[in-house]
Amino acid sequence: DIQMTQSPSSLSASVGDRVTITCRASQTISSYLNWYQQKPGKAPKLLIYATSSLQSGVPSRFSGSGSGTDFTLTISSLQPEDFATYYCQQSYNTPFTFGPGTTVDIK
Amino acid sequence: QVQLQESGPGLVKPSETLSLTCTVSGGSISNFYWTWIRQPPGKGLEWIGYIYYSGSTNYNPSLKSRVTISVETSKNQFSLKVTSVTAADTAVYYCARGGGSYSYWGQGTLVTVSS
Question: A96: distance to nearest CA of chain B, Å?
Answer without folding.
Answer: 6
